[in-house]
Amino acid sequence: MTLKPKRRLAAIFVADVFEFSRMMAEDEAGTLERILDQQKTVIAPEIERHDGRVIKLMGDGVLAVFPSVISAVEAAAVIQRRVNNVAASKRLKLRIGLNLGEVMIAERDIYGDGVNVASRIEALAPPGGVALSASAHEQVRNKIPYAFEDFGTHTVKNIPDPVQVYLLGQELTSIPKTLPPKVAKSAQATLVQRPLIWASSAVLVLAAVLGAWLLPSLAPWGNPTAESAATQVELGPSRIVVRAFTDSQDTGLAVGLAEGVIAELAQRPDLVVIAPHSSFARPEISDQSIAAQLGADFVISGRVEGRTGLGVALDILDLSGSQQDYLRLPAQPQQDMLSLQAAVVRDLLKNLPSPNNDASSGVPIPTTQNANAYKHLIQARSYLWADNQIEAKQALQNALVLDPAMGEARGLLAMAHMDLFSGALSGQQQRITEAQLMLSSPPFSRQEQQVAIVAALNDDEGETALAQAQDMVATYPNYADGYATLAWVLTFRGEQEQATEALKTANQLNPLAPAFYHAIEAELLFLVGKDEAALTAADQAIAMDPSTQRARLFRVAALANDGAFDDAAAELRILTERDRNLGLSEVTDLVPYSDPAAAQRILTGLRLAGLNGNP
């Protein structure tokens, strides 16, 4: 059984490349390469950044939807500005059309006259411009500081009535470089008004354990108010990407060392440092392309080199001004990994536009003073990024032999043992209990704190879990996984609005969200009755990690509750083939929601799909 079409009001975005056919005839391979790069590095990231969702890419075109026309106009303006600023030899001029209309949603696509009108209006836009329908213009008129030109009425193909068209004015070339909106000062208690900073390898280990692929996070379908759209974290003066270091000496330390540098830089409240999970993605593309995709002002790359002592030669690409210049810093060989990481951080702090350039200020003391133990931890991080879990586990154990109190090593091993989202659901409670025994006392590292929070949930200590999660984000206010964990705890407690905001912050901190963020999103959306949006989020998690059991669990329930019983039963077979001991009683233990009706909703869906046992 397939899902029947549903109708929604949406801001519809259609774009295509001007003179596509002519350019393909002249240079087919080169044109296609530029189109794909533009879609991946400019169009899709800006649509996502403005809360839109890409429905499909159509060769030279893009179809997307937004929950508000204002968001769609702002995204279109930024896309055109960025495209128009590309060098003329590489420029692909776009035409963009926007319409507010009703669409039918079916099979992950949208249909209806609203889509047709947007497509016809797009064809009327000038190259490099944006055209709006009257219904779209009415929603933004006098609400945003953009000028619009009345382009008159036009008769267009397959649309019975003439269409009134408005063109966006000079803002396409004059608007400032945009960043996500700022959080209101009153929201500081929940979303701390400080830079978005990454400071841990927890997502890396979970990405390795879950097999997550690096795909952009797409906003859930919804209809947020202007107030909720504004509750975003305020960014600091500069966004920094530290790419995975390369290694001329084949030491196996380069990636782990880069992550350690990020962790130290991320402690600075006056810098914005993109998460390793996002900044290490797509090593094959240029610094300029990754900067465009992640909205960075500075891109840092490094090469580990040296014979008598290792050093890191640094390249800092400055994109913050009109010029795009590299600053190159030679390697300064050091005697051990702790000294090397500290030297790299000092060099960067001296050359990044931080309001406080005192290299010693704000840089934390590493979690160990044992240089050999820290070297094993760096090796473990590198192994995890390469998805070499056996070697990573051995390196973590080697680190703990030399320094039994190293909290990050203990936390990473415990998190891998829990395997919350990909491991068998029927044995999860036992694994959580065992993971808790692996922690130091008290848990000091962020990774250990996450395990302790999950263990509190497992023991039905929701108040304790919430207090610990809130303490974690207060202590590490720029920790993406900390906010994802807080969102999960809030979901269990039925505080869905706060959970949504916390998860939004996690996605801002880690722009290319891992699979388990989508799994949490699927659970959250299912519990508030948004089954179709929950299916979309679960599909994203499963596409990134086909083994993600928890996301599949909620996909089964959402399909069944929506009447797609055959599809739900087929999905349940996949779930139970991997976990033959799974029954309703095991699921009951996995959903200790404070609201009994929430647990009942998933149990009902699973019963309808055919899951047996007594809850």
From TrEMBL:
PROSITE patterns according to UniProt: GUANYLATE_CYCLASE_2 (PS50125)
Pfam families named among the record's database cross-references: Guanylate_cyc (PF00211)
Annotated InterPro entries: A/G_cyclase (IPR001054), Adenylyl/Guanylyl_Cyclase_3/4 (IPR050697), Nucleotide_cyclase (IPR029787), TPR-like_helical_dom_sf (IPR011990)
Ranges for domain Guanylate cyclase: 11-122
Protein name: Adenylate/guanylate cyclase domain-containing protein
Taxonomic lineage: Bacteria, Pseudomonadati, Pseudomonadota, Alphaproteobacteria, Rhodobacterales
